[in-house]
Amino acid sequence: MNRILKTTAIAAAVMSVATVAQAREQVRIVGSSTVYPFASYVAEEFGATTEYPTPVIESTGTGGGMRLFCNGVGDDTPDITNASRNMKPAEFERCTENGVTDITEAFIGYDGIVFAQSATNEAMNLTREQLFLSLAAKVPVDGELVDNPYTQWSDIDPSLPEREIAVYGPPTTSGTRDAFEELVMEAVSEDMPAYGGEAYTNIRSDGAFIDAGENDNLIVQRLAENTDAFGIFGYSFLEENRDTLIGSSIDGVPPTPEAIGSGEYPVSRSLFFYIKNQHADDVPAMYAYAKMFMSEKMIGDMGYLKPLGLIPAPQEVREEARQEVHNHEPIELADLK
Predict the structure, then answer these.
(1) Distance separating the N- and C-terminal Cα atoms of the chain
(2) Which residue in 218, 144, 174, 212 sits closest to 83, CA to CA?
(3) At how many degrees (to 10) do helices 62-69 and 89-97 cross?
(4) Contact (Cβ atoms closer than 8 angstroms) between residue 107 and residue 240
(5) pTM of model > 0.85
(6) d(CA 126, CA 59)
(7) Distance (Å, rounded) from C-alpha 173 to C-alpha 55?
(8) Which of 92, 179, 197, 209 is the most exposed place for a label (fewest CB within 10 A)?
(9) Where on the phi/psi map is residue 109: left (φ > 0), alpha (ψ -120 to 50), or beta?
């Protein structure tokens, strides 16, 4: 090989190595659409104030993020996945089967699932049972389970408005959907004799519930277009759109930061992100990003994420969660059951 070609080849190789190294400096994050606004804020701050590039974040939904995260270890898999619920035992087992064996759970705070509508309407006070009856595929009528016959809210309770039941909500891959099914569908159906004490989470598919995808901003847009409809999404999106949307009280409790943080609001949940510790050596920015996310300036009582809708946990809970991340404590299957 002549000197010019050899020099060119060496330069190309150096550029290739530099490109790979640069790519691995960029943290790759997937997961929950609810956590996405908070993670995006931290990512922008991280890119602006550190030597590392801004992380890349995809809003895939909690379930979709878990699948990508648990695909294995390596450049083609995410470093972090956001979640609006705990990792499920089955997801942990899938991670383990694919070689993802060292995972740290980072608890960042609380969120409420809101049942919102256009602010052109009067606020509604709904019970979880009324919500269940509006969305369940089969409901009890005269002691028998039948296909949901309710087409208007007043069909469920005469005190509710004569408005068509139309609800834009998240898909099955969403942690918001999982939490709604657990906190509303399961909680109500287990106390209804018609379901034999079993949890019933089947959502009707006759058009009353509209799968609106993982982008909660699209639900917000659709509520502006269809002022008779309702939407199911995280509290942060209600907070960002107070000028156009109002949330419904659930079991007499309005969705406020105080009620969500205390657990009084019955559809409250915890938010997380999960760290693939096996990527630490190849992605040096990963722990630096996690440290910033868990800092008081982000998740504290006066943190930057609070105005975006994150409900801070009590100080001692935040400190415990921060130490678990700092120490890279791995979760075990028993922690998730």
Answers:
(1) 62
(2) 174
(3) 20
(4) no
(5) no
(6) 30
(7) 23
(8) 197
(9) left
